Amino acid sequence: MVACRRCPRLVDWRERVALEKRAAFKDEEYWGRPLPGFGDPGARIYVLGLAPAAHGGNRTGRVFTGDRSGDWLYAAMYRAGLANQAESLHAGDGLRLEDAFVTAAVRCAPPANKPTPQERDNCLPYAGEELALLSEVRVIVCLGGFAWDAALRVTASSARPRPKFGHSTEHELADGRMLLGCYHPSQQNTFTGRLTEQMLDDVFARAVARAKLGSTG
To answer: Which parts of 66-138 are beta strand (E)?
Structure first.
């Protein structure tokens, strides 16, 4: 995956950002490649985001790391007992996830944080391969409508009418796994109060409860 060059627009952007850098990180070496998922191989909770941030994951080499969205996400996962620490600063900071795996529908940082449908489709097989390997997954937490749509596609959901995304919306798949919608912890949502810490905590509490209920262990 980290050598993927399927999407010329994304390749150009991720590499250009890694060369030009942001002034605050001018002395850092950017990752500038596609990002693999991160977490527990035995995870029952699979957290699916949109794409890496240009100066977050694209810089640090770990998904949701080094940006405000990651600050919110991992702090909530820590409160839910899914992470050993509340901060995610860089790939070597000691963060570990338990019973959870975090990834993104698109693995390269996109311009304006907006991947195209074709870029999504080029990338979704990677999520499919992850889910095939993560055989214990019971809940897929979808951070935003883009991730919700991607999850429906990668799980080949045949539900009709097609389930619509909403915060706290649940959709049970034919195989018993559950999709759980959550507003993305972007600054646009957290700064405006559209997503609060309590709302995020409630989603992960439901994910943990459902993952335990559906456990085969």
So the answer is: 100-104
pTM for this structure? 0.96
Q: Walk me through the domains of the chain, giving residue ranges and CATH numbers.
A: 8-213 (3.40.470.10)
Residue 15, phi then psi, degrees to nearest 5: -75, -35
pLDDT digits (tens, 9 = 90+) for 82-106: 999 999 999 999 999 999 999 999 9
In three-state secondary structure terms, 24 is: helix
Cα 170 to Cα 108: distance, rounded to the nearest angstrom: 28
Residue pLDDT, tens place only, 171-195: 999 999 999 999 999 999 999 999 9
> In what order do the strands lie in the sheet containing 45-49?
38-39, 100-104, 45-49, 139-143, 178-182, 170-172
